[in-house]
């Protein structure tokens, strides 16, 4: 298994040291660089091109929210794990909407952090139950068919239509029709919003 190169963006030295120590316990993860604010983090991302960025939301000079948007503008394939002290549902919602693939609070276990990094590196979202519970009341209910629920679960994991078709044993055209129906029922514009809403309602479970 390849080593996953991680960039840590955290303004507190002791927090960075703790993260480094946790990640050193995994033979599959190495810390490629550390930044103490958003501007330095963006610069280091450009030079190091890490596999995964782990960042705090509330950073000096450039906020974590702005950094997420700029990272994805630099590279559409940027993989981002948010690690924050803040537990508000709005922070989680905004981070996921802007393009983060995981949100952990800083009381998450080392195993959860490692699992989040490994999942995000594979292109899969990772949102623990504690974060999902905070979002559970944000949207109205809606009904999906069993097949639509299966397709939605694949979408939430970051699967393409082709990958979903292969996994479910159906035609790619059929997947597209199901995705369109899911988006319509949920009243959302795209797959990212559908994923966020599904996580909020507990319609899919990624851990």
Task: Produce a short descriptive summary.
It is built from 10 helices and 5 strands. By secondary structure, it is α/β, with parallel strands linked by helices. Helix 3 (64-74) links the parallel strand 3 (52-55) and strand 4.
Relative helix content: 40-55%
Strand order of the largest sheet: 2-1-3-4-5
Q: From the alpha-carbon coordinates, what is the Rg to the nearest angstrom?
A: 17 Å
Averaging pLDDT over every residue, what do you get?
87
Structural class by helix and strand composition: alpha/beta
What is the first-to-last residue Cα distance? 21 Å
Summarize the main sheet.
5 strands, parallel
| Element-by-element helix/strand order | EHEHEHEHEHHHHHH
> What percentage of amino acids are in beta strands?
5-15%
Low-pLDDT parts are none
**C-alpha geometry:** globular
Number of helices: 10
Number of strands: 5
